[in-house]
Design goal:
By secondary structure, the chain is α/β, with parallel strands linked by helices. The protein has 20 helices and 18 strands. The chain has three domains: 5-134, Rossmann fold (3-Layer(aba) Sandwich); 141-313, P-loop containing nucleotide triphosphate hydrolases (Rossmann fold), CATH 3.40.50.300; 316-448, Helicase, Ruva Protein, domain 3.
Amino acid sequence: MLKGSLLLVDDDLQVLESMADWLRDQGLDVDTSAGYADALEKLAHKSYELLLVDVRLQDGDGFDLLEQVRRNYPASNVVLMTGYGDADAAVEALRAGASDYLTKPLIDDELLMAIERTFSQREVIEENNQLRKELDKKNGLGNVVGQDPRMLKVFDMVESVADTKATVLVTGESGTGKSMIARAIHRKSGRAAKPFIEVACGALPENLLESELFGHVAGAFTGATSDKVGKFMQADGGTIFLDEIGTASAAMQVKLLRVLQELEFEQVGGGKTYKVDVRIILATNEDLADAVAEGRFRQDLYYRVNVINVELPSLRDRRSDISLLAQSFLQDLREDTNRPISGFSEDALAALENYAWPGNIRELQNVVERAVLLGKGEVISAADLPRDITGGQSLNLSRVGSMTLKEALEEPERQIILDVLEANNWNRNATADSLGVNRTTLYKKMKRLGLEDGKYANR
């Protein structure tokens, strides 16, 4: 049985009533109109999921009614039907925005199929709209938490520059949220409906980075068996975010300078010049002015990328936001994990606020996730936090001096997995289930983090 509201519009009263009765028998909520004017009157007082409209009406035209619906009632779909149809008319109807175009006399199964198809399309569109709203919430400024004066200045700057074409350089330590700010700028700009393409420049060697950014033609190098579209082309009309720009080689810096100035490039191995319309946002955790002084970064490129600088403070420089961020992460995790955790104890919040956070917001998020997964009570206490934080020793500034950033950021993940392994007596299947990951992912993480079976079992 079908479910939904439908307005049937036809000036043949006999056809109108018989078809309406049949559609009601199929489970639909059906109203009828004998003409154009009456249909508009009904639309003004009631919403319909679908209008089934005859093209030829005594007081108007089905195409005119379709235009009115598209303009004033965009949530309603329209299926046109006619006894005088041809292929050109069908194409015209679909171009005008009709969901379907049917030719009389209507076959019952054909009509049902058209209605079912239209309702299915509505569901997909509604799901996409909901996903888009969730994406806006996730990637817009509404998800960037902070009340510290430094962050309020960042928010004001994002609002000011979002809808301009200016190149933006986002700076700050690793883990401070540079990617999130870049996405927020994109989502608040006029390019929000276009692609947002992110490239981690430091993760690729120079030859692969050039191909990744600009694409290549078949035969450009060994293994290039076909043409490849680069990230700049993929971002055409939208925004490209180049993270870790300070790692770019001297040769790549020359190519980037040209793209930033002219928005033109050639594919690797190709001679054709492509021009794109992209907004460029860059990020780095380095001091580019120092890199220029040391000869590692081109001065002309520095001046070109440093048009607008959004500088993100470290978490230890915005301690008043730590509690706010922890509560925000907890809320998201509660929704994802269905854990009945109401909040943090005073001693837990005090420990979080007194910690140095070398890994910044990313590290805080990992710590809250660990506490939610392993906590036994309804309130996260200091006992649920890693010893590194409650003891105020590990991962503090003195220890960070002897660790790489990668090592510092791996510590919370290693501790979470180790604690869950121990809680499950080193049963990897049970541990994977507890963490919500598949076994293969767990095995790879254990190997990467040096957590081979039993290595820490008797520590």
